[in-house]
From TrEMBL:
A motif (DGA/G) lies at residues 153-155. One of its GO terms (molecular function) is hydrolase activity. Residues 8-166 form the PNPLA domain. InterPro entries: Acyl_Trfase/lysoPLipase (IPR016035), NTE (IPR050301), PNPLA_dom (IPR002641). It comes from Chitinophaga sancti. It holds the Pfam family Patatin. One of its GO terms (biological process) is lipid catabolic process. SUPFAM superfamilies: FabD/lysophospholipase-like (SSF52151). It comes from the Bacteria. Keywords: Hydrolase, Lipid degradation, Lipid metabolism. The active site is at S41 (nucleophile), D153 (proton acceptor). This is NTE family protein. A motif (GXGXXG) lies at residues 12-17.
Amino acid sequence: MNASTRPFVLSGGGARGYAHLGVLKAFAEHQITPSAIAATSAGSIAAAFICDGYTTDEVREIFQHNKIGLSMEWRNWRTGLLSLKTVEKVLTQTLRHKNFEDLTTPLYIAATDFNSGKQMIFDKGSIIPAVLAASSIPLLFQPIVIDGIPYVDGGLTGNLPAEPLLEKYVDIIGVHVNPLTEYHPENGYLANIDRTLHLAIREPVLKNKAHCKEFIEPAGLGKFGMFDFKHFDDIYNIGLEYTRQLMQQK
């Protein structure tokens, strides 16, 4: 089997972002690795490690060992309910390279300018603030200030941020971990918040889906919410097995 590289774009999705590792693992089994990654929110956390030269198995071990999702600290209503301090600590301690320019694979991270509402693509300078900015869901997390500008979750302006890849790369593989499932009133408050958010940001996803040569959206992820961090293995395995089946059909 000949080794090859392809550009990937990884969506946000909270805990469902663990599925990105399963998807990338399945491609790696077929000797297909990223030539570049554009990502936001949860996807940007996984992407930072992969572009830094880590294997999917190594990233999975880091996530499990540090319990990144479960360790988010509660704050208060005034500043945001949660803190990304644990994510910041793990990135600081584990990333081999701290600047975009030093990565082995090009990385583009999308965040949202909280002043203008415009998408911002980070591909130069310090990686960690960009990842934190791209992961800062408004109301739950404080905006991350970079060069005097407050930034929040990139999913608000594009949860499948293919834009930085379009002029430089072809045959983009899009990975979206937020399948839209049928509405059920009994699913509860958090499920309805999750659904409302993804309906609100769906149009840019559909637009960028059209730019992808392949689009991976594991349907089984629909039973998990953004905060189901206790289901790491299930989410990972859904991404892995779904993509393995797609690869077998080629």
